Amino acid sequence: MDKTLQQQVGENVRRLRREQGLTQQQLGYLTQTNSTYIVRLEHGRSNPSLLTLERIAKALGAEVWKLCLPIAEE
Q1: Is the pLDDT of residue 1 over 90?
Q2: How far apart are CA 18 and CA 9, in angstroms?
């Protein structure tokens, strides 16, 4: 089953956050959101705005477009 874009973004955010050694709460703080939002995003249940996606990418040291790629292609 193909993953939705929201699911791909969520998985990439989770992977990069863990690689950076950040908690969901820390990422929420860095992105001016909160841990509940990060949880929903990582589970593909939240659709981030472009501004939020940009903040997340910056906090994780990634390009915005890389958050949208399927993990196998990165």
Answers
A1: no
A2: 14
- Residue 1 to residue 50: CA distance in whole angstroms: 26
In tens, the pLDDT along 27-68 reads 999 999 999 999 999 999 999 999 999 999 999 999 999 999
> 46-70 in b/e burial notation, b at 16+ Cβ within 10 A?
bebeeebbebbbebbebeeeebeee
Residue in the structure block whose two tokens are 């997340």: 56
| Vertex 54 angle, CA 49 and 58, to 5° | 150
- Model's pTM, two decimal places? 0.90
